[in-house]
Fold this protein.
Amino acid sequence: MNVHDSEKMSGILKAEGYAEAANTEDADLIIFNTCSIRQKAEQKFRSELGRIKLLKSKNPLLKIAVAGCIAQQRGRDILKRNPHVDYVFGPQNIHKLSAMLTTNAMVCIEDNPEIQHTDLPAERKENLKAWISIMYGCNNFCSYCIVPYTRGRERSRPSQNIYEEIHELADKGFKEVTLLGQNVNSYNSDTNFPGLLRKIEAIKGVERIRFVTSHPRDLSDELISCIKELPKICEHIHLPLQSGSGRILKLMNRGYTYEDYIEKVRKLKESIPSIAITTDIITGFPSETDNDHSITIKALRSIEFDGIFAFKFSSRQGTKAAEMDGEGGRMAEKITSQRLSEILGLQDDITLRKNEALKGTLQEVLVEGASKTDKGKITGRTRTNKIVNFEGNESVIGRLVNVEIRMAMRHSLEGRLTSQSQ
Ligand code: 5AD
Ligand code: SF4
């Protein structure tokens, strides 16, 4: 989401006549697009902001802006404490960037209940795969999460507007689109999410459609049928579970039980046997007991995700969970670290096992370019979003090819090019 917001900022600046500087020392404008989902991201930003201070004395023309969710939450405070910062603006005010720069307004962090940045000209670095915002904000208020406070209420972009952006991308040669929203399953404008998918499916030139993130509570049977029926929708779903423990899910205000979740997974696997399911897990949520943790471990063993992102709970000021944390629910750092490594260790084995099961199969791969990790090879992704490296001519870059999987590692597969699909 943030990377795509940065693409929008680049697009606005390019239209204003800016060009990307070769390095920070040469820049006349530096924008920090910040994330406040966890403390670690905030710390990184703060140390970078300190480091950049020196540049300002070397280049008096340099302007520094802080954007993103930290700006939204602490914009005025950042300005007060950091005289070298010129502008702060939040994720709901990206469309005001050029006006800010010309009028020298310093703060743009008001809530924006309208969608005014649907037509921002995103400047994409790639020419094969693109992110497209379909909605903004979130209404879910999961108790640990800062997003509803920084990105505001849920707003869905009109489907025609999305259609036109994707159409243009297809005309430029893009092959894969990833639809972005905090909770895409509750997309609701002139049509619902399955309706939007059907509309995009019809765009010529688009070969693959992906979407993130799906909220388990809102994953409907209609959407499952859509994934099954529409050939361009890839067989991969990111479905954040967060915890296996019903008690913790309730405290997290997730709106589903573990049993509800399992039922959705069952339906997904039944309808689309080849589907890859990935998830997010938070460990060390306030008051999480050894028992809650072992229920999560059991859940990971039983569901066998294709991959997970696991995080230590990070207390975010202003959220309900931060209060629980303050009320003595805080977990000892040592315990949280142990739980996290147990989760990651277990998942590593599962991921490897799942990848090994693909040996000998034929996979459709969209070829992206030269492999960064495997010199001399080219690389791409399966429909299930797994990385495949293989020997091949650069002429197949940007195309769909069939690859026979020969070897499986934790983070990638290796294969042999068989025949080209087109
Ligand atoms: N602490 C830890 N992880 C968090 N996430 C969101 N908020 C927090 C937090 N306060 C995780 C969730 C979410 C992913 C994007 O980030 O797992 O799905
Ligand atoms: Fe945060 Fe929950 Fe909304 Fe996701 S669904 S952005 S975790 S509040």
